[in-house]
Write a structure and sequence with these properties.
The complex is a heterodimer. By secondary structure, chain A is mainly β. Chain A has one helix at residues 100-103; strands at residues 5-7, 10-13, 19-24, 31-37, 43-50, 53-56, 65-68, 75-79, 88-95, 107-108, 112-116. The chains are: A mainly beta, B mainly beta. At the A-B interface, strand 4, strand 5, helix 1 and strand 10 of A face strand 5, strand 6, strand 10 and strand 11 of B.
Chain lengths: 117, 114
């Protein structure tokens, strides 16, 4: 069974440019999460989709970030325009169970590293 | 605001040494506690978890962790590390008021010298 896949694995862009990160969850997983780790700090929650709906987007830092999950399958996270402080590793995770943060049945991708110059 | 603290950012050990990584959280209510590990070039994976019951939990690869409620701690231990344990370890907590998200610590990089 394929795991959570993220693309690209590494993106280097200049300040002011746009980047779109993609996450393909495990097939059948309705729950999809985005997390971010900036500069070796803690991994922070960005948002949670249930199918195509945003269940919780309280962690989105500002309106330069747009997450979508059309059709409830893969998700994209767009940063426009990118700023230096957006550099970090963006993790995607998926789960079948909505209470995955209780059960621990949350499956992570390898992350997309974003470098903004 | 609730937070999760990992005190050791980088630990270097020789093989066969014992390991203890600290994790503390700030919240007086019900919590679920986890340790995740990220091996080089791989995804985060669950090492062990605590919900309730016996505060000493055992995970994969010989790891264990002890929940001490009075100290708000969930320290990870392994009696004898191996070179293959070289990885980054993250403590994660979910809080009873919001089961949509994990709160992670800042991670501890463990280097085991062969």
């Amino acid at each position: 069974e394929a795991g959570v896949t993220q693309f690209p694995s590494h993106s280097v862009i200049e300040k002011g440019q746009t980047v779109t990160l993609r996450c393909d969850p495990i097939s059948g997983h309705d729950n999809l999460y985005w997390y971010r780790r900036v500069m070796g700090k803690e991994i922070k929650f960005l948002l949670h989709f249930v199918k195509e709906s945003k269940q919780d987007e309280s962690g989105m830092p500002n309106n330069r970030f747009l997450a979508e999950r059309t059709g409830g399958t893969y998700s994209t996270l767009k940063v426009q325009p990118a700023e230096l402080e957006d550099s970090g590793v963006y993790f995607c995770a998926s789960s079948q169970d909505r209470l995955a943060v209780v059960t621990g049945e949350l499956f992570f991708g390898e992350g997309s590293r974003l470098t903004v110059l | 605001a609730q937070s999760v603290s990992q005190h050791n950012h980088h630990v270097i050990l020789s093989e066969a040494a014992s390991l203890e990584l600290g994790c503390n959280y700030s919240y007086g209510g019900t919590v679920n506690l986890f340790w995740y590990v990220q091996y080089p070039g791989q995804h985060l994976q669950l090492l062990l978890k605590y919900f309730s019951g016996d505060p000493l939990v055992k995970g994969i690869k010989g790891f264990e962790a002890e929940f001490i409620k009075s100290k708000f701690s969930f320290n990870l231990r392994k009696p004898s590390v191996q070179w293959s344990d070289t990885a980054e370890y993250f403590c994660a907590v979910s809080f009873s008021y919001n089961f949509n998200k994990f709160y992670f610590g800042s991670g501890t990089k463990l280097n085991v010298k062969p």
